[in-house]
């Protein structure tokens, strides 16, 4: 398996650069006979789109999904499903000034060390625009999961040190996921705690005004999951979710269930008691031995502050000469609101892959 | 790729159950002509072995490594390297009493939901004994990395809420990794801060005396790494390390570099400035865009308290009847000291895989 | 690995249907820093193009290669290389009459049995047009091989029972491969024996006039190969070539070296003696134990007569009702001349994959 | 996917050398809940065993199958199934005389060129003994197929130029596969035409007496197959069977259905008419577009004469010095009777893999 593919059976292979012709993906292993809802895919892309509010980059990328293969009469056929989004607003010359400088916090230096050649136009292959493909894959995955009733949703929990109270949202996520989704979308931060959301927005604006950026924490939940998804060992959903999430640019930490919080508990506190209706608490975050318990799967992600900032930073050029760099351009001062749909998409994909695997080697439901 | 395999090019496939004939692994993609040091592999297995101190389970499993294939005259040949450890001390009847009960915190319930059948002998495939195979694979990986000078080492940072000060160890890890390794091994907790280590040991003994268990945090570092290991997108080392670590039983969180700590920083604080000698700080944990910067790769793992505890817990049997369970037997009251060599092994494997990939598709060093 | 991917390390994933938006492929594992010659790719596509002579279908498909990703400044970057050919001349309504009939010799019946749904427009995913993607992949592979001096070429040996004498061409292939290539291209049949070529052309015209089709045999050779390409067991080049060739629609047999002809020899005749300069004959077709000897790799393919014929044939519709079908349209009366570039491409790809694998796990050349 | 693995979803990874500790395999993707019949596996191994008659090598290898993992109470659990056969009768010193000579027809020269190191004990990894693992995998595959009623069987068709008449056997294979199997096993040549079988046996003995060897042709059939197994493009069963068969040492050609014989037919003759009951003839060998039609899948293999012969042959040593070699030892003078169970096993495996794939991405049967 190459580094551009993800999934054990349902497999996505993504391709494209931020300033090339576009971003796309090939999905292999999609069950045939699925009436694909392209609008639903477009909607997810729109959630990831820049320019949604004054908190995100004003680039107005119209990211229109195109189907290059795999559909007949609106139905999947079992053939590879290829989706493509053309790059419309690419202006590589914007990068001319800094083409030979290594941007701190970016992969410029490491890509050159890895390949001996580097596409300097907006990070090339390692651009955040690559996540477009993941959002599209996740939107297909959601449709595969829909039969089972599974819902994937998320929220921004913390930005710039401002902590939201997610108690209400969490309860809603379990009882009325569509309402919880709507709550998340209500505020441009995607934080469903209105007071915290406003504080976060202000913190983002403050940092932006200073040419700086901020980080935060996002939460993803998968609810109405059947028990028995996932496999032991390297097929554990914890592991696959870890791979999925930590392969998103800017994510530097992942927790399942109580995460680091579980480490101070005793076993008698951390073990979720089992009753006739299933687990009676959810410290494990919906996964035991990497396999779904039937309870909500809960994932937290640490998102670093955006690396591209206007403040001057110390760096070198690709010849090793010292330099000062200011990364101009239209960059999100906080990645959290736009990373959320990407993280949800990856969670959906991990689960849909597990569903297809269970069809192959599991008992009937 | 199946759920029992790990690695993109250098690939391990592990097999075996805790109470079957043994645990093994097939390594495909090992470079030929490597004079394999079997003693070094055995030493790593011994670090993982139970019964090393009064803090770990007294089971005296003599885990002797056997080579089933892939060596000629002590050299790797390019053929699959198969390593096997026979199970000596297995007593499946120890599990008869609880064969039909779901142990809280264990995968009994989920494995049955997944496969419709379950091996009740000590968790079967999903047993912690499976990590034996990973430790062996990691020991081979270390030998592949040795040519480049890479060293992988680790330490226990926190147990039962007792936090160690790793400043000294961290410095040592960078300047004299062998001394840092020795320091880690000095105390049975594998915490290199002697004061904290003693406190941790006491906390473990206290929990154990009450039939309970504790959790903690372990740290793994890879030092003397060349820049340019890893690939973008799903080949990011962050992602592969996330997969590797979160697929170890009991691990519920992973951080790279500053991890969740980075989320409260601003970009101007979080970005590591670049000087002629490379990055001048290491918030990124040695990885930018998933590719090594040349600085130390730093990983933190959240380890939950051992699920098997002697205290009575509420559960059901596999027919849904309520029951009380006490998991007797010889279980580690804290997983951290023994999970450390497993986590180091997985880090070594992820890096060795990246080295082989770079041979295939990178410039010469 | 899904059914739309080929290659162990250098991997192509093809997508597209004959009457969808187009045909494409993603290549993962291409070495970075390759100055990609797009004209050379286009030239190979043109060799596969319909409408090249009165012996092939008059459809004038202008198959223009587009690069969707993976190039910067004309150089490969290590990112996935995505190539795409839009379908220009597609007229799905041409298939309306026979949308519910199973064409004999085609996969209509089997695709429906496999997926429960079927794209009736010109065979959908299973169309011969899919081989476009393979030709493009092979053209890239040739460029990876060019550094080593490897040349891949071929010839039509037999059509409609007319057997060519390839002695001269075979000698030329070894001494002056470019001249041998030119000789092949001289006649629209791609048979380099002029007398036989004329007879073949007449046989094709005769069959075509009767609404019928003919089959034949094509030969592919790889010359100037270094010894030591390939791997044992399932990495044997014989096996991978078998997979490559028998996955081309219409191919029903493959021979390596003497093929079926070797079965009547004795060991003392079939074994190629080894001298200081290498093997002194080539019954083995350039492969021993699946690994290249350094001698020419020689492959023969059995190509069935085109399944689409104008003659009335007995069949059923998808409800099981008996029917008579005449497959109108512009179909090649003989696949051999156009299958040749596809077979060459697959051979090139198998070898380039082996080259990349050897970089990962072999000694330096 | 590495070179030691086969299968797209049901995957076997084989390991071991002819003179190492043993030969084994890991099967991933086996459906859980299968009551594994170990005797049936042993019986298939016994069919492959040397020393079955005076026509095969007198080495009396007692190849006893051992289960290293994946079974609980005789049932598969979804965990990797690992099977192992210890090497009992290995005497590496038998190879001392020729350790530095390249045996003509063997992979000695090519393995050294590939890996820079070579295990000289009886071909090491590339030994025919590796096929043990395939026979075991095939025996498991047969049990996966048994639910569907599928039967895999075969016959030797030609040895040393002696052609059998398989008309009767072919008919029997379709109507009473168990009787056809019994007929094959009746004669040590595994040729079910008694007259031809006797002639073949004599030809083998004659060659053997002269220190020489002979080749032949074997046929494998899969009958009582449901329609709809296989996938388009690289998942075509033709292609996977080609890979499977041409990766068996000594096989230099493969035909599906009419194979090379179809190339002289016209389309109107080669296309199998379709009636209400399915295809009315079987030129296509049970596969259209690589997917099963429901008719018998028919495969022919070209088997070269055994490379190890006692006659003196011209060669060089690994320093390039000319030499004469006589390969003493106990080698089969004809591979056909023992290659037959291997080829059947590979066919069974390809089909079982397709069955598991169809469970994942096909409609219900």
Molecular structure report:
4 copies of one chain form a homotetramer. Chain A has 365 residues and is of the alpha+beta class. Chain A has a single domain (5-361), classed as Chorismate synthase, AroC fold (4-Layer Sandwich), CATH 3.60.150.10. In chain A, 30% of the residues lie in helices and 21% in strands. Chain A has helices at 38-48, 108-115, 131-146, 167-175, 177-186, 194-209, 237-246, 267-270, 336-361, and strands at 5-6, 11-16, 22-28, 65-69, 71-72, 75-76, 81-86, 151-159, 162-163, 216-223, 251-256, 274-275, 278-279, 287-288, 291-292, 297-303, 313-316, 322-325. In chain A, the strands form 6 sheets. Chain A has a 5-stranded antiparallel β-sheet, with helices on one face. A 5-stranded antiparallel β-sheet of chain A has the order 9-8-10-16-11, with helices on both faces. In chain A, a hairpin with a 2-residue loop joins strand 5 and strand 6. In chain A, helix 1 (38-48) packs across helix 3 (131-146). The longest helix of chain A has 26 residues, at 336-361. The radius of gyration of chain A is 21 Å and the shape is globular. The mean pLDDT of chain A is 94. The interface between A and B is large, with 114 and 114 residues. Strand 11 (251-256) of chain C pairs antiparallel with strand 11 (251-256) of chain D.
